[in-house]
Amino acid sequence: MATHALRAYLDNAATTPVLPEVAEAMLTAMGAGEDAAAQGLWANPSSSHRWGIAASAAVTVARGTVADALSVRPDEVVFTSGGTEANQLAVLGRCRARAGRGHHIVTTAIEHRSLLDGCAALEREGWVVTRLPVGPDGRLQVEAVLAALRPDTVLCAFAHVNNEVGTVQPVEDIAAALRGAAPEVTLHIDGVQAVGKVSTEYGRWGVGTAALSAHKLGGPKGVGALLVRRGVRIVPPVSGGAQEGGLRPGTENVPGIVGLGVALGLSPRWTAGLRSLKSDLWRGLIRALPGLEVNGPDPESSDAAPHILNVSFAGVVRVPAEVLLHALEAEGIAASAGSACSARHAEPSHVLIGLGLDPQRVGSSLRLSLGPATTGAEVAVALEGVPRAVARLRHGPLRRGAGVGDAL
Q: What's the pTM value of the predicted model, to 2 decimals?
């Protein structure tokens, strides 16, 4: 198959291209070039000389930007290698710190694997995990959370925005309900798909811990952050230094942290236009392909994130999602059959199964996601290319590797 140029990148929930301003700031922090080298931001921020102090100041600026986005104090922000580490540091570290109080966790069946795998690891240590079901829109009911609480509940852990279908959970309401009914229970929020895209005033709402990741925001891969509110004790998995309050020892990734801060600071510039672009995409697709069905909440409702659209092609063309993806690649369109963390595995999406969708619908669903660099021109490419790819599949044979058992 010939290599096709990328014309419409609609897989931003998996990762985003690094914004030019972010790359420039990171190069300076790496000391790339004579002027940048002289600034010394590449120095170890724990060093006491002037260049180490300059590097430390750059980290402080980024920490303040993250703190402002989460409505917390700068000293409540811990830098990590990304969202997965942040989620697991919160889940494992908080539960192990409170093991003397209880061994019960409440989450849902549709969380990101980094959160679910952390809970599963604790189950192997004897913890009990309640995985709440959700409805077809993926929305969690506050009453269900309260009903699941037990005297030994230590942690409730949920994603603010579901990474596959874009459901926005009522985090503020859940936090308020927990403060009233069980203030001793810590609320952890996976904010990876939320920060920079929806309101994330976690500090004001009373969230105990929350995770975020730079590469979902036009920042670099390999850096993220964890909110740890004052008074929330975490048992760190490793020791070796006093960096990041002793929770994440090791020399800080100054260029990555700088990139995260710049990317997050730029997010208001592009977030405002996301919902309009998503609406144009959804309306155009449903006009061209009337049998298309949305998975999750109404794409234009406040319960839906502004950047994620998950749709089933089961009523449009009877081929598996993998075949659809290859057909879109031929049009220069990048999309996903689910979370990038699990998309290359043969098993169907646990999120779509958790929504109660039938196997045929699950197997023919794609996620189209927008980001900081998405343009109206890319949406226009998709609105031409997706129907054209579907038309080819309707009138042509299944691609090699898609047997009779794969046809939908």
A: 0.93
Domain boundaries, the chain: 8-16+271-406, 20-268
- At 241 the pLDDT is 76
Instruction: Encode pLDDT of 35-57 as tens digits.
Output: 989 999 999 999 999 999 999 99
Identified catalytic residue from 95, 119, 156, 341: 341
How far apart are alpha carbons 90 and 29 in whole angstroms?
A: 28
Q: How far is CA 300 from the centre of its chain?
A: 20
Cβ 4 vs Cβ 333: under 8 Å = no
So what CATH class is 20-268? Answer: alpha beta
What distance in Å separates the CA atoms of residue 27 and residue 36, rounded to the nearest whole number? 8
Biggest alpha carbon–alpha carbon distance for the chain: 69
Token pair in block for residue 36 = 């940048």
Is 119 a known active-site residue?
A: no
Which CATH architecture does the domain made up of 8-16+271-406 adopt? Alpha-Beta Complex (3.90)
